Amino acid sequence: MILEDSTWPDIEAYLRRARGIVIPIGSTEQHGPSGAIGTDAICAEAIARGMPRDGDILVGPTIALGVAQFNLGFPGTVSLRAATLMAVVADYVGSLVAQGFRDFYFLNGHGGNIAPCQAAFQDLHLATSLMSATAAQEKGLRLKLRSWWEYPQANALRQTLYGAREGIHATPSEVAIALAARPWTRRTTAMTQAEILAPEALREMGGDRHRDAHHHRERFPDGRIGSDPALATPDDGARLLAAAIADARDDYRAFLTGD
Ligand code: NI
Question: pTM value?
């Protein structure tokens, strides 16, 4: 079920059998010379919308803007402040909690969203922590963020397909998934082979811990970070997408039934 395509009686009926929702979250930022600016949101949305079978899973509206200030030197990038994203997450969750939703699974496509989402989750839990034990038990709010590239089958496949040429931004895997979801975004842009970055450098940049936009464009002039997105094909994208959807269903089930 897609929330925007449903009616309120559909959602009321859904809430009688379930109380979970999958929320795709991405970013609108440059993805190298050949990748669509919407890549992160397109990937998260395509994976999330592939999850439902016979109305068993509800997918909410995609949060298409993320925290991407470091990419503002590239035209077309739109960034939220971390505090704005935290507020969006709080309002999204708060609206649905008031109606009976309890289990929120954010399916993430952008590293820069991880820290602000985790901070927003802490603040949402704080509201429950400040209640009496009985009231808190009734609330039972559960929040999880999972980035699709952590999924075991999808991660193994992207390593097999691209190895050291996967990089960490404008990666062939994310560009391939976006091509599978939106074939019309394909570009055949000539580019040099990626600069292979040391593992320590990649770790240092994990979760998009970058500096300002001026520095970032100077350091990564065409927007890629150690990646060869020219390797991306729609066929590989379809395989990655199928793997990620299967992983996402498993991970969401485990979330719903876990502690
Ligand atoms: Ni991306």
Answer: 0.95
